[in-house]
Amino acid sequence: MAKKEVKTDLWVRDLLKEADLNLEPQGSSIKELNEALKTASKNGTGNVGFPEYIGTVKDFIIVIEDKADLNKHVKMDGKVISLEVQAVKDYAVNGALFYAQHLIKNTTYKKVLTFGVSGNEKRHKISPIYVDDTEYYRELPEVETFISFNEKNIEEYYVKEVLQEKTDIEKETAEILKDAATLHEDLRNYGNLKDIDKPLVVSGILLALNELEHKNFSVESLNADTLKTDGQKIYEAIEANLKRAHVAPDVKRDKILSQFSIIKDTTILNEVNSTLGKTPLRYYTDFLYEHIYKCIKYTRSAEDYLGRFYGEFMSYSGGDGQTLGIVLTPKHITELFCDLLDLKPTDIVLDPCCGTAGFLIAAMHNMFNQIIGAKELRTKEEITSDPDIKNIRKNQLHGFELQSYMFTIATTNMILRGDGKSNLINADFLAQEPDKIQLKGATVGMMNPPYSQGSKKNPNLYEICFTEHLLDSLGEGARCAVIVPQSSMTGKTKEEQAIKTNILKHHTLEGVITLNKDTFYGVGVMPCIAVFTAGEPHPQSKECKFINFEDDGFKVAPHIGLVETESAKDKKQHLLDVWFSRIDAETNFCVQSTVEVSDEWLHSFYFFNDEIPTEDEFDKTIGDYLSFEFSMIMQERQNLFGGGNSNVKP
Asked: How far apart are CA 16 and CA 143, in angstroms?
């Protein structure tokens, strides 16, 4: 047993190291904690007693007590955790609670997060408990890692999970959604604008606002002058900002600028509205400056603010939003791509269906943050002048976008993030020669292709065809991830089978991750992430990872959409640990298997559950199966009769 206990201790130590938690084993160098432990014997004798690990994070004490045997996880006395001496000595949770209450009573600390851990890296339980200075305790949801409890995340965990309150980020998101709804209505009511024109007006005004810091534009100058209209003033500021951002060549800048002509050419936008007492353009500019511009300009977050607004506009447009082809890749997915592909500051990133540039923005900030951390850059001047950051802006971000208005939004979005030099191209990716794209030297590919466009008559528009074209456009050894409907990985038509065959002939499938069915909330797509290595033929003996990540810690909140719960960070860390083989996982989470072209490249295909399911599990499985079948039927209808979901690019 002693050997097993040591193995558990070492596994817990590795989890702490991974989470950047510096706890001490068997005692503490913090005088106050060490004094308290001198009387912390679990026998209740008043002698010395030490938990497996102890330390502090901010104003929290962190305590861990572990046992090798899963059966020694917790002993209950009715509905409460037993604090009887033998239970405290023999069970992980009971011992953890004992130490927490002892430390609260014998130190000046008012908050303790204590953990009962049992098992090993493959089968285990990690149960957090919060104890306050009244010795009251609350059992919290089980976790897989300690990532939520390091210095960066512990306050957010405390607010969300212990206090059950909204964090500042959640409050900000709610405000963003509220503002988007308001602006959407105002754009329609005061400007009589079509859905496709709304984001162009918004992004154009934001570019004009970018000239404020150069004193080349003033909100107050929008005074409804009939000689030089508000629209003309905004248009000139847009042109200046495009030049200042070094958007080149001129033909690209002119193409973008032409999209903004609606601002100066639309009469209703430039006339004083009797209700507003100003022109709609002045009203929109005031609104955007106060509610949006400051958020975008002064944050390094990977949140695609402009794209989020674009998506929100469309969400209020009913079916029109879908026919316009609008779907955002959520922030947590764009950031997950960066982690799954182990993005480095030296990588060159290609997104061939870039939309509002969400992947490129996430990649840019991920690489920036690595450089900032490694070089310990502190000031804005140090960051903007760093040669590696300059090189990322100029040479390491590439994208294609077919739709002119989306291309304009993407370019605007990058400019507002301080990057006008990205190599974005307004062109059809599928019409490009892969050999020529390879000359860009991309080492990483990220893509959310158009959905539901492929059919037997148009097999080149299947999502798997976009995937193959991207892989062919990357150099040997490049890493690639795509988010596609699960049906892309089943691929039962002859055309899809042929493409899958060709992919395995020239490239390597690393694995497929099944995602939360609400990832694209409101769209009705059941997505997955497929990860490949380009230019290296798939070995027959290779075992790919197939992961069920449906329980990702995100849930649908009324009137808001998909929101992050406190468990999301923990679940993501567990996913990454399994993906990079830092730990093993039970087969209900990850199955490793060789693959055949005829296989459905999904966890559900390879997973065999030899346990008898409970009634609830059976009902859930049937429900999930029916949902999947329904989505397949709807997709076939779209293929046969036209239309498409909200990721379609007409």
From this structure: 13
pLDDT digits over 169-195, tens only? 666 667 777 888 888 889 989 999 887
pLDDT band at 492 (very low <50, low <70, confident <90, very high): confident
Buried b (16+ CB within 10 A) or exposed e, 360-369: bbbbbbbbbe
- To 10 degrees, what angle do helices 230-244 and 280-288 make? 40
Same domain, 337 and 393: yes
Q: What is the mean pLDDT of the chain?
A: 87
Confirm whether 233 is domain-assigned: yes
Which CATH number characterizes residue 375's domain? 3.40.50.150
Residue 582 forms part of a structural domain: no
Range of the domain at 465: 323-549+593-605+616-641
Q: Is the peptide bond before 352 cis (omega within 30 degrees of 0)?
A: no
Residue with the two structure tokens 């999947």: 628
Q: Which residues have CB under 8 Å from 508's CB, separation 6+?
A: 532, 533, 536, 537, 538, 539, 542
Domain final position from 162, 184, 208? 162
Asked, for residue 646, whether it belongs to a domain, the answer is: no
Each residue of 355-402: pLDDT tens digit?
889 899 999 999 999 999 999 998 888 988 999 999 999 899 999 999
pTM of the entire structure?
0.82
**Is residue 362 domain-shared with residue 464, that is, in the same domain?**
yes
Number of domains in the chain: 3
Paired residues of 272 in beta bridges:
none
Residue 601 lies in a domain: yes
Do residues 130 and 137 make contact, with C-beta atoms less than 8 angstroms apart?
yes
Tokens linked to 24: 């001490």
Strand partners, 509: 532
User: Strand 444-447 relative to strand 349-351: parallel, antiparallel, unpaired?
Assistant: parallel
Burial of residue 49, with CB atoms counted within 10 A of its CB: 0-12 exposed, 13-18 middle, 19 or more buried: buried
Q: Which helix (H) or strand (E) element contains residue 35?
A: helix 31-37
Q: What is the pLDDT of residue 564?
A: 87
